[in-house]
Predict the 3D structure of the following.
Amino acid sequence: MSTPKAASPFPSNIEIAQRAKLLPIVPLGQERLGIPADSLEPYGHYKAKVSLDFLAGLSERPDGRLVLVTAISPTPAGEGKTTTTVGLGDALNLIGKKAMICLREPALGPVFGVKGGAAGGGYSQVVPMEDINLHFTGDFAAIALANNLLAALIDNHIYHGNALGFDVRRVTWRRVVDVNDRALRNIVIGLGGPSNGVPREDGFDIVVASEVMAILCLSSNLADLKERLGRIVVGYRADRQPIRASDLKAHGAMTALLKTALAPNLVQTLANNPAFIHGGPFANIAHGCNSIIATRGALKLADYVVTEAGFGADLGAEKFVDIKCRKAGLRPAAAVIVATVRALKYHGGVELADLKSENLSALEHGAVNLERHIDNVLNRYGLPCAVAINRRAEDSEREIQLLIERVGRHGVRVISATHFAEGGRGATELAREVVRLCEQPSRFRFVYADDASLWDKMQTIATEVYGAKEISADAKVRAQIQQLQEAGYGHYPVCVAKTQYSFSTDPKLRGAPSGHVVNVREVRLAAGAEFIIMICGDIMTMPGLPKVPAADSIDVDEHGRITGLF
């Protein structure tokens, strides 16, 4: 008698993606979105750039409804925000709505580091997954080149006489690379004698922290892109007067490098539904949203557009509201907050090894993190919302019921969704709730007013969104903030760079800490992107790799088949 075969384990994300039956991208764009073939520039068979002229011609069409997907504070246990975004988009199409999703492009730092890829997971993915997670259409390479061209032009100008009068101690523009490399955070350049330039301190950020990335994502068109690039402040003279990229005549060449990258990328989900993936600023050190051009274009092409903002509703969603929506005139109709039972138990004090066991007490304690995010979405941003529990096999019915009852006190529905295992079919209840929420009157609002001071904007974010008692900064940073205020930048929004793992600046403080102090360690001007970066706590704009990076598991077999990618 033969031994029964053991049930096959659930396939990995990359195995599912490699088995997918993709549709050629040009016919898909034509048939599903009405994009003419000559307005699509294919990159192979399954991805394409969409013409900026075509998108500009849609301006008279009415907008669809914009749905924001955000999440609780991220944990090592995982939440699945991108997976939920994809699953919700597929589910909306399944229930008869014309829907698109808009995502950011993955950065190679996380892909080869600790987080992994960012194309969704299970049966809720965007494809071709390998291309999207690796070089894709070359947008990040173009951004890095434009950034580093400007850096080279600065040092070349200083070498050839410094006619603009750079104070070499006050050059603020940094170089970038799209991998995590802590050794490049602080360096000295120009060594080796006079022919190699003027020695000075410099450093690298990761590409997704570059102001060029933010500018590309916040630009409305090519002319706007060029103007913003020209406004970048790259350093100061001895008299503290700013020097801009336009003073170096750099913005024209930078625009030439970015011309193609400015066009959104069209791909598809596993269910063959269209998706825009474009831009990729981090939410813990930049504004964490895909491009304005992609979002506006999708709103003209679909009745519902599902987009995400990076990390939790305290970081990504706040910046989505106060930076992206403010700059682009967008008004989201509803929001979805993603959580997992595992992650909430982690916030309740359970360690990773014990998360599979039912623990109602820990879930009760961890639910405060979810409730803080719900309060922010409802009462700070004015958006109706639902909670999507990204369901796992080990989640008990009692745990799900606890969350339904507790969150229900806030007038918010908790919906258990199985889109990871079932694709869009597992999120149809969530989709119907989103449609219902979108029918409600909008109370959308910003967290702070344009005319509030920079200090007051930061104070408002910290106290009202993070639950802090106050903010602090040393005398030097306070003086820099005041100088920016007096120099005419006070109307800019604030972009907070801090740990994503906690409402505080201490990543070890789980749950919903309150009464803490948020220390502003450094302040940076992003004059082209038109926001002020407040760097808080120990956050780094160049991350490092973990002891065992994800790169250790990635390989290619003799047939060119990639394995181990996310």
User: Anything to note?
Assistant: Residues 525 and 532 are 5 Å apart (CA to CA). The radius of gyration is 23 Å.
